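Task: fold both queries, return tokens.
Query 1:
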Amino acid sequence: NTEIPSSSNAEDFIKFSEIHEIILNAMTSTTHGTGDARDTYMSNAITSLVGNKRVGIYTAEDLYNFSIAASYNWREPATPNLYANLKTIKVIMGLHYALVSDIDYSTMKSKQFIPVGINLDLSDGTGGSSKTYLPFTGKFDGNGFTISNLYLADYNYITMVYRMVGDEEGSTDADIPLSNYYAMFANVGTSAVIKNFQIINPILELLDVPDGLTKAAVLAGENNGIIENVAVIDAKTNAAGNDSSGIMWSLPYGAVQTTTFTAAGLVHTNNGTLQNSYYSADRVVYSSSDYLFET
């Protein structure tokens, strides 16, 4: 078994709630004039607040707010050409986080955790494309604590709606996944370090899979950094006491499968370092979703 160390050293953390307050106040204010001015203000304010300190995640609310701060859509469902705070997102992706206590995410109810990491490739309608790649590049140190019942977000929060310039009626609207990976950390950059925690009984129920999202794992989709001392343990059961572990995956109603999906328990695609970590469950994919996945 993996031994996940715990830190007992006292430390003066910046609370994530302080970062969230900066973002919330700016996003609900009309004083910044333009989206770019607001984005610049938030990114500078967060950088100034944090300095060289680590950011403490104390509660399930903090964990949720971390995910929306790093999200292309912030806390909103996808809407056409929503302004993305890319400067702020880049800052959030690069900070050094630390869990300060065990977290039971079931208390968040409908506030689902949005996968962290963006890899967008948008057609401009003329054969060209615009790419946005913002992986997690910071550090996430669990300090030996546990995240239980983590519930990942579904369709409307893991996509963006792209509309061609000049289209006022939405005839060109297209739903684009924010990454082709579905995981707690969808995309992990080369400088990132994720370590020292357990994920217990995660809930990954993507019941309306957007076109282009084909790969899933619990912890990380594509890892180019360092992952160490992390365990995923899925022992969920249903009301009858039968095993209900694994990733649940469904196509939109009436859709015909045209691609092959693949899944892994801990990390889907590892191009970095993965050590002293494990996945424990009876299955990776929920039994009723098996037929969609490559065996």
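Query 1 returned. Query 2:
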Amino acid sequence: AEQERAAAEQAEKLAIERGWNRLLAACLAEQALVYLQQDYLQQGNLQQGNLQQGNLQKDNSDNVRLLLSELEQLAQAHSSCGVMLEINLYYTLTKSRLMLSQGNFAEAIDPLTLMIEQLEHRAWRYQAIPAILLLTQLYAASNKLPKAYACLHKAINIGTKGGLNKSFLDEGAPLINLIKSWLEQMYENELPADEMNFAEQLLLFTEPTNSLELDNVDDHSTAHALEGVALNITGKEKEILSLLSKGLTNKEIAHVLSISLGTVKWHLKNIYSKLGVTSRTEAIYESKELKVLE
């Protein structure tokens, strides 16, 4: 967080020196985002449906408000020029993020919705993604999941066409959690393969690879740990393991199971994580040892 904030501050100085007001607005908004994420994302205080008003530390809250004030002044100073909408976007995003952090969900939704409409009117679809993703989180925090999922699907549709995964990853853990729950529902519905792959790749970017830590434990503990892993392998993962053992490629597995190639890769990553392995050969060996495969 410190490195990100330092980089944004350095870019801010350059923007001021050169008179690049759009860059200046972007830097101010980025600094505010870092302050907010420092409290909520890194400490795990911001979770889907579990937003607590007043959790933001006082120093960070004051810093965000100062940055918001600078953005507001910048927007007012350029109210009649062509960069107005872009600067207003950064101001609206920052204000909405602060309101989300304080639990003022309803107050943030309407201004953000209006901003999205203005961006779409100008066909600025890619620029609208951060606002749509923030609106997704506001709806989720307000326990309006159908609206949250509709916004998320809209953003994924746009992001898929532009390959804009960074906009999604910048939102951090709360959005990733929403994508996971949304995908669980969408697996049961028809979704274009490119959109499914895009969403699954976002999860792959953020999913840590875990391994079994079985060193320095007795045989009894090891047996229970291995049993737990075996029981945690899902039916779909067993199907994929079975096909792996028969030598099928990822593409062939996708064809046999009528799922996307991205879905196969997503399941394989989960399988590797659960078994504590890094290759297909190791996965087959471990699954036979655990009696997952006969």
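Both queries returned. Flag for query 2: Residues 41-54, 208-231 have pLDDT under 50 and may be disordered.
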